[in-house]
Design brief:
514 residues, alpha/beta, four-stranded antiparallel β-sheet, 17 helices, 51% helix
Length: 514
């Protein structure tokens, strides 16, 4: 008997691919998009957590670790489930549920941080782990659908792995260079959540399978609405900070610049000689004692914030030219739009990294360098090292002065290390602060806070500086010589090769300028 041809019941020859309803382009798009989404969530999570945990090495390590855990868990579970359940039934729920969680994340994290801070780490972990695992499960599920012949195993797995890696790269670059600079982080996450739920809906329409899209759409809408009323709102979300400008109810022209919930600068728009924070009054006292009254200076400021001190120099030393390296262009816009920075004031603000800004300055071109750069509750470590201070010394003239605001708590381990670093670089170093913090008042307990360090290769009139401190009623003292050596103790100078700044700093929820 001759075989019957064209029968629908005839088995396909061994090795012939079966059609699972997912073409190569659709498979690549799903793997590319889900891999990109994982990295978007990871990077934006860092931005969301920075106001509450700080943008420190520990915070970054934690977020990266959770994201990698999610990728590993999702890849394992996705592959296991794809062998037990019809794979097409899994893709829609993976995209949809992850989209709903992503859209709810801004409201969940900010509400938890304000109302239940002890739960913040748990909620933060879940908002990264759940969508990360679900999205990472897409790649093995799609691979299962496309892997229809053992003869193509290497080609299919290699192609989809490569596509997923490219998606992760694109998600990283797109978020870091484009999205964060143009959109608020809540908008990024709500938009991503919407795209994921829409993708789930398209798959549902195509396969006529899972039908949870309407409910997840409501979750995305709820996330968007909740974000508008959740605590922790900003006047502006810059590349690096959640920024607000708060008016002083007791001083009509007074404004406080708040970055990531911490007071960074106080500016009196009408009277730049009014200095609210004690550490700024200490900076002014030291500089006024070190240079003749009214003499214009060539100054460089590493860190700008509200530009309180550059404004003070412009007002008290007419003709002063201040170059300011402020890494956050969003803060510079706030200075111009909300804090009254005017052109022609002798203040040249450059949106650049402080270390790179130093490198661009000519040798011996500055009378004064001021260090006052902070990233939320953290200190940019690369601005604290012997190598960075060597560059500061290079740009100063022979009578130049470096002054810097330091913040530390507890055992003041970072501050001691930074003063030791300056002692390695400059001939003369002194430290200004509250007597308890300097160990000059044995009856008081040091709680930390702000300190001001000054360094130069020529002596500074510390007696005149102390008189200026007393006149400004700071209550601060100056430590130098043996007292300072004893205070530094065995602290190790910081270098580009070894600068564990985040570990030296003591965690404190009240860290900020005073």
């Amino acid at each position: 008997m001759s075989p019957v041809t064209g029968s629908s019941s005839s088995p396909a020859p061994e090795g012939t691919p079966r059609d699972h309803g997912l073409g190569p382009r659709a498979a690549a798009a799903l793997v590319f998009g889900s891999s990109a989404a994982v990295l978007v969530v990871e990077i934006v999570a860092l931005r969301l957590l920075a106001p509450y945990l700080g943008l420190t090495l520990e915070t970054s390590t934690m977020v990266i670790g959770i994201a990698l855990t999610a990728i590993a868990l999702g890849s394992w579970l996705g592959g296991r489930l794809a062998d037990q359940v019809e794979p097409r039934r899994l893709i829609g729920p993976s995209l949809g549920v992850s989209g709903a969680v992503v859209a709810l994340t801004p409201a969940l994290l900010r509400t938890t941080a304000e109302w239940a801070p002890v739960m913040l780490l748990l909620i933060a972990s879940l908002t990264i782990l759940v969508p990360g695992a679900l999205l990472s499960a897409v790649t093995p599920i799609v691979t299962k659908l496309r892997l229809t012949s053992l003869a193509e195993t290497g080609t299919v797995v290699g192609r989809l792995s490569g596509v997923g890696t490219v998606g992760a790269i694109v998600g990283t670059v797109l978020t870091g260079f484009v999205l964060v600079s143009r959109l608020p982080v809540s908008g990024i996450l709500i938009g991503l959540g919407t795209l994921l739920v829409v993708g789930a809906g398209l798959l549902e329409w195509r396969t006529r399978g899972w039908s949870g899209t309407p409910a997840l759409t409501l979750a995305v809408v709820a996330g968007g609405l909740a974000t508008t009323v959740a605590p922790g709102g900003c006047d502006a979300e810059t590349k690096y900070h959640c920024a607000r400008v708060v008016a002083d109810p007791d001083r009509g022209s007074g404004r406080t610049l708040v970055l990531d919930g911490l007071r960074h600068s106080y500016v009196d728009i009408d009277d730049p000689t009014f200095l609210e924070f004690a550490y700024v009054r200490a900076l002014a006292s030291v500089v006024d004692a070190a240079f003749p009254e009214g003499e214009p200076l060539a100054a460089h400021h590493v860190g700008g914030g509200g530009l309180t001190f550059p404004r003070y120099l412009a007002a008290t030393r007419p003709g002063t030219h201040s170059v300011v390296s402020e890494i956050d262009s969003g803060v510079v816009r706030i200075d111009r739009d909300r804090l009254g920075l005017r052109s022609g004031a002798g203040i040249d603000v450059r949106a650049e990294d402080g270390r790179l800004g130093l490198r661009r300055l000519d040798t011996g071109s500055r009378d004064l360098v001021v260090g006052d750069a902070f990233g939320g509750v953290s200190v940019p470590w690369h601005l604290t090292t012997v190598e960075a201070m060597t560059d500061v010394r290079r740009v100063l003239d022979e009578d130049g002065l470096y002054v810097a605001n330091l913040i530390d708590h507890g055992a003041l381990a970072f501050a001691r290390a930074e003063v030791a670093t300056l002692g390695r670089t400059f001939e003369h170093v002194a430290l200004v602060g509250e007597p308890a913090a300097l160990g000059l008042d044995p009856t008081a307990t040091a709680e930390g806070g702000n300190l001001v360090v000054l360094a130069s290769d020529r002596p500074v009139d510390l007696g005149a500086a102390q008189e200026a401190l007393d006149a400004r009623q700071t209550g601060w003292r100056i430590a130098t010589g043996d007292d300072l050596t004893s205070w530094i103790g065995d602290a190790r100078p910081l270098t580009d090769d070894f600068a564990p700044v985040d570990q030296l700093l003591q965690p404190s929820a009240t860290r900020g300028s005073q």
